[in-house]
Specification:
Blueprint: E1 7-11, H1 16-27, E2 31-35, H2 39-46, E3 52-54, H3 62-76, E4 81-84, H4 99-127, E5 130-135, H5 150-170, E6 175-182, E7 185-186, E8 201-202, H6 203-216, E9 220-223, H7 225-237, H8 240-263
Helix pairs in contact: 1-6, 3-4, 4-5
Length: about 260
């Protein structure tokens, strides 16, 4: 999918991966519209490129995000690519396990993404063209400690996209679906992690990988490669007893590391 002149809508674009992808796609000639709740941060981002326009909005606001999409279509003539990147993450430990921690993950990661797809999909189906790219995570391929809320929502997104992709192909809609599954990327969200993050990469590098995959029209953009392979081996191919033993071992190591830090 050549990006020059294409209209790209990116959610969760006020910082991190979303902001870096916006800048990368703008450099490649796309006409990028960025959405997030922080209007000031969006305006600052838009000031860095003539190809970026700000359209503030909250993806958990069903009617509000529909209005944002309608405004983009009216002003830009359509949306060729929707990169649904907005999400939230909080670690969940046994002593903190609560509906209060799960609720924002479901409202933002799942229902916020669903709101965006509902808003943009009829437009793309009517045009018989377009791509919806949903940012999930490699944690959607396999369960990890401290991610019972986050990982579950990302697994949901992967499953939803696989099903939606099949349905759209079955009806010959011309609309494509891509799953973006990053590993650990240095962002504001991952700064709260108090454990070693394997294969961690910088946000600009992640943006280049995502942009390359979108240009190629890949149905799945998962990276870094070693992290992706490891998570798929653990989640999809490792026998249940071995998988549970491995993940429990990771949890024990993290628990010991936290105890060591707490003791000083």
């Amino acid at each position: 999918m050549p990006l020059t002149g294409r209209v790209v809508w990116i959610t969760g674009a006020s910082s991190g991966i979303g902001a870096e992808v916006a800048l990368e796609l703008a450099r490649r000639g796309a006409r990028v519209v960025v959405t997030a709740r922080r209007a000031e941060a969006l305006e600052e981002l838009a000031g860095r490129s003539a190809n970026i326009t700000a359209a503030a909005g909250d993806i958990t606001d069903h009617d509000g995000i529909a209005a944002v999409v309608e405004g983009i279509i009216a002003s830009h003539g359509g949306i060729d690519l929707a990169l649904l990147n907005a999400g939230t993450y909080r670690p969940v430990l046994p002593e903190d396990f609560s509906a209060e921690l799960f609720r924002p993950h479901i409202e933002v990661n799942i229902m916020g993404t669903v709101n965006c797809i509902e808003a943009v999909l009829p437009h793309m189906r009517a045009r018989h063209a377009g791509r919806i790219a949903v940012v999930a995570s490699v944690t959607g391929f396999a369960s990890l400690p401290m991610a019972s809320a986050y990982g579950a929502t990302k697994a949901f997104l992967i499953s939803m996209c696989d099903s939606l992709r099949a349905d759209l192909a079955g009806e010959g809609s011309g609309v494509q679906v891509t799953v973006v599954a990053p590993g650990f990327v240095k962002t504001d969200l991952t700064e709260q992690n108090d454990f070693e993050m394997p294969f961690v990469i910088e946000a600009p590098e992640a943006a280049r990988i995502i942009a390359d995959g979108l240009e190629a029209g890949d149905p799945e953009i998962a990276f870094p490669r070693r992290m992706t392979i490891a998570m798929k081996v653990i989640g999809r191919w490792l026998p249940g007893p071995l998988r549970r033993r491995y993940v429990a071992g990771v949890a024990r190591r993290r628990h010991r590391a936290r105890q060591k830090v707490a003791k000083g």
